[in-house]
Amino acid sequence: MERSYFPYKASKPAAVLFAVLYSVSVAAHVFQMIKLRAYFMSVLIVGLLVEVLGYVTRKLAIDDDPTLWSFSTSQVCILVAPAFLAASAYMIVGRMMAYVGPGASVISHRLITKVFVIVDILCLITQAAGIAMFVTNVDKADRTVVLRGRNILMTGLALQIISYLIFVVITIIFDIRAQRMKGTQLKKLRPLFWASYSVAFLIIGRSIYRAIEFGTVDFKRRTQGYLYTHEWPFYVLDAVPILAAAVILNVIHPSSYLPSKKGLRMDGTIEVPARHWWSKSKSTKEHELENATP
């Protein structure tokens, strides 16, 4: 009898297809990063490589002689990879705030990147630990460890959803205030705003799906739960949305809308950072950029 770690008959062609599709997107991102010198997008590339690894190991876990390591690696990689995309979104909006200049955002562009990336790292670690405990103990008679793993995983997913919703609210406020400050000047950033909103919607939706998936598992009936025991929701609500987010940033690449020169602002000034990270608001000076094009 064929052994399977999946609670359903998993599709090998689907795993191969998404491994290829994610590989195409990551190859395009690598090309764009090098061509446009957008090295801050390397975090996104790492996330997509983790997705590729996840689908490659998923294919191995579906093979005739699967191993627990391939199944566990697949589950962990696919679950935590979107955290890298979220970190990229924080960096992109932070750079948009820096480009527009002070006054438009309710929080410093440096602070928003640092705070949300730190929270994102906590989400990543928590989710990785939780899913690892869950998948390696889900078939064992003693449910203590698997329940603990699910609780840790759910905590990580909830934290990710809440933090991203707060981030979206901050982005919307920034969008409205920047529109009032810059008027028609902000039009060139509009595609990047919509890309950021779209990526946020896709990641939040996917995280909600994952929270419901693991939250509805009924351990009294040996891991029963529709989302957990059927494969199609996984591809429709996880694989496709995260791939779509990656492709959106291929098409609307941040470096096509933001200046390559770090610190250059929309009004032609340059923000010069202080020598010490603990300096207060006087840590930046405004300098007119000679011959700068608005």
From TrEMBL:
It comes from the Eukaryota. The keyword Transmembrane applies. InterPro entries: RTA1 (IPR007568). Pfam families: RTA1. Keywords: Membrane, Transmembrane, Transmembrane helix. GO terms for cellular component: membrane. It is a multi-pass membrane protein. Signal peptide: none annotated. This is Related to RTM1 protein. It comes from Serendipita indica (strain DSM 11827) (Root endophyte fungus).
